[in-house]
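Project standup — Tuesday

K.O.: blocked on the structure for the chain from last sprint. Re-posting the sequence here as requested.
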Amino acid sequence: MNLIIRLILNAGALLLVAYLVPGFSVDSFYSALIVAVALGIVNAIIKPILIILTLPITILTLGLFTLVINGLLIWFVSTIVKGFNVESFTAALIGGVILWVISWFTNAVTKK
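H.V.: unblocked you, prediction finished:
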């Protein structure tokens, strides 16, 4: 049940980011749900590999390079999922930061 709640919250967060960030668009709530699932899978499988491969630059930037990795993964998912479009890396980076903040808040709320 917790997984479904987090999935719905992440889909809502994607819709909010699409409203706030120019160049970041989601066609419908259904598309947002699909994007939330795809981002979850990509973050679970590909992100740890990228973090290990880019560990030296991540250490040099004190962890800020993980924001770049998040932006790249969001941009990558936008090429796969129909109904989700990110026009530039800048939009993906800003959207990734906003999604991170919203996810941090929703994780804090749903853990109780």
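K.O.: great, moving the ticket to review. The longest helix spans residues 29-53. The beta strands are 24-26, 84-86.
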